[in-house]
Amino acid sequence: MRRLTLGNGLRVVLDPRPDAVVVEVAVHYHAGFRADPVGRSGLAHLLEHLMFQGSARVGRGEHHRLVNAAGGHANAATFQDHTEYYQGGPAPALERFLFLEADRMRGLRLTAEALRREVDVVKAEIRLNVTDTANGGPAWTRLPGVLYRNFPNSHNGYGEFAELDRVVPAECEAFFDRHYAPGNAVLTVTGRFDPAHATESIHRCFEGVPARSSPVTPTLAEPAPGGDRREGHHAPLSCVHIGHRLPDATHDLASYTGHALLARILTARLRTALVARDRAVSAHARCGFFGPLLAHAPDTFVLTVTHRERTRVDEVLHTVDEQLTELAGAGPSPAELRHTTSRAAAETWRQHDSFTTRVRLAGAFEVLHGRAQLVDELPGLLAATDAEAVALAAKRLCGEPRAVLALAAGGPS
Fold first, then answer.
1. DSSP 333-387
2. In terms of pTM, does the model score above 0.70?
3. N or C terminus: which one in the chain shows less Cβ crowding within 10 Å?
């Protein structure tokens, strides 16, 4: 990988893959929904939508049309601490992709009409993914409010309808000006391209974007819970989300990867203890609400079990505690560890073999941790994780307070 920084502060990661026939371009801004202002939950995600409503030289809806006309694809996503915009397609389309991202980095066409339209689109997305779902929606919409207390960490990043309705164009413009400066972004290019030609094109497209002061990172640190925290709601299906704080990957990556292996082992054990015995429908543990290394600390170890109505929440928690206690004491068996590490490494390599996934993760790892190379290093780190690291991770979870969000069947979410 090659890096350069433009005069306006934009950081660039070049990841040439000579054997590819496509090119992928991503821009990651170092601001996600933990940057939402108090009283304006969902603003970061709303702005993601507005970024496709037109810029200086590109009209509303034209971004997708121009990418599709080149035989490509485009999309975007908002996470806790970053927002990503990415597109890919045939290698000759590189210049077009760079132009489109540079044009909207300069500024947007923010109108009251476009804002109201996109607020309605976001509301429809929330209904589809949260309020109208059988399990009450993904863990990241509700569990943070149980585990954390300060606004950046605890609020629902999708946003509350009443707060979205009150957003005005000036607030979107202020958020854009504050967080979408070149110095607060990383441009990543991967796939088939000539680095010298790409560098020349990047300078031509992005150097003219005016520099602006980068924002102060929101304060995320907060005291650890003094004890377990628990909340209950209704949903069509019975489900329990359990959350623990993770170690800071920036300062203790080895411990973090130990938790990543623990999540896989715990998933397999709970499927045997709960799903195979018809006490639950599904069980899954993971590092991070959106995946490993995709957030600053505090990050969250998440365990979700959709269980039978006849299975009480305390039974699920007891089974989780049993498995964690056993792993903390004895660690995984040699065969269990060997199977898990090899599978984790192989699956991660396979995921990162997708150029779209690669550009998205390389840019995210760079903007969050300053280490785009983690996209290549992570499979090896998982493969090298030993039984002691897994046992230590289990012991850490056994000894720390957790958040429990219990969704009981029999009512609306």
1. -HHHHHHHHHHHHHHHHHHHTSHHHHHHHHHHHHHHHS-TTHHHHHHHHHHT--H
2. yes
3. N
